[in-house]
Specification:
Layout (H helix, E strand, L loop, with lengths): L3 E4 L9 H11 L3 H13 L6 H6 L5 H10 L15 H10 L3 E6 L3 H9 L6 E4 H4 L6 H11 L6 E5 L2 H10 L3 E5 L2 H7 L10 E3 L5 H7 L2
Helix pairs in contact: 1-2
C-alpha cells in the first residue's frame, strides 16, 4: 500500500518557461531559439544543458550560472510558475492521508524558493542540497531516508523516463509519469523506455487513482 508520494520539480510541479527564458536573455538569443534547441537535445536523449552549449560552445555552465546570478539574472520562482494543479493536488493527497514530499534535480536556491512559496508538502529537497543527483541510486537512497518510508510504499512522480521513472523503479519505488513538459509528452509512449506503474495528466488524478488500487 502506498503511503508516501514524492514529486520531481521541473515540468512536474514547476513550469520551466522562466528558467529557460532568463538563460536565453543572458546568452543574447531569442527565447524561441533556446526553446527549440532544448527540444532538439531532448529528442536526441541528451542533457538539456547541451542546448546552452550549442549556443556557447565550450561554456562552463556552472561559471555562467554564477555570473548570471551575480548580474541579477538569478533564479526566481513565483506562484504563477507552479502548474495550476499543484496546490490543490498536493493538498488533496495530504487530506487523503498520504505523506507528500518534493525532491528533484535542482539548485539549493530552487529549494529555498519552493519552501518560501509554502507549497503543501512535508519536505522540499534538492539534489544540490543532498550532493547527489538523479539518476544516481544514492539520490533515491537519500529520498527514502528523508521520507522514512519503504520503497514499495513510496510513489515517485516525474516527467522524465530516464531520470525519474527508470531509476526510481530500480530502487524499488512505485512510479508515475506525468504527461507534460517536453520529456513527459515526447517519451510517454516511446518504445524502449521504462514503463511507469501509472501515467497521469494532472496531479489531481492521484488521490482517486491510489484509492482505487488500479
Amino acid at each position: 500500500m502506498i503511503t508516501t508520494v514524492v514529486f520531481d520539480v521541473g515540468e512536474t510541479l514547476v513550469r520551466d518557461d522562466r528558467y529557460w527564458g532568463t538563460w536565453a536573455d543572458w546568452l543574447g538569443v531569442p527565447r524561441h531559439t533556446l526553446s527549440a534547441l532544448v527540444g532538439a537535445v531532448v529528442a536526441q536523449g541528451r542533457d538539456n544543458a547541451d542546448a546552452l552549449r550549442l549556443i556557447r560552445p565550450g561554456a562552463d555552465i556552472e561559471a555562467e550560472r554564477a555570473a548570471k546570478e551575480a548580474a541579477g539574472f538569478g533564479e526566481q520562482l513565483e506562484d504563477s510558475d507552479l502548474y495550476d494543479d499543484v496546490r490543490p493536488g498536493l493538498a488533496e493527497l495530504r487530506e487523503a492521508g498520504y505523506a507528500v514530499h518534493i525532491a528533484g534535480n535542482q539548485t539549493s536556491r530552487a529549494g529555498e524558493l519552493l519552501r518560501s512559496l509554502g507549497v503543501p508538502a512535508d519536505s522540499v529537497s534538492t539534489s544540490a542540497e543532498w550532493g547527489v543527483a538523479k539518476p544516481e541510486p544514492a539520490f533515491f537512497e537519500r529520498l527514502l531516508k528523508t521520507t522514512g518510508s519503504l520503497p514499495s510504499a513510496t510513489l515517485y512522480v516525474g516527467d522524465h523516463p530516464a531520470n525519474d521513472i527508470a531509476p526510481a523503479a530500480h530502487a524499488g519505488l512505485r512510479t508515475c509519469l506525468i504527461r507534460r513538459g517536453p520529456w513527459g509528452h515526447l517519451w510517454a509512449d516511446a518504445a524502449g523506455v521504462q514503463r511507469p506503474d501509472w501515467t497521469i495528466t494532472s496531479i489531481r488524478e492521484l488521490p482517486a487513482l491510489l484509492t482505487s488500487g488500479v
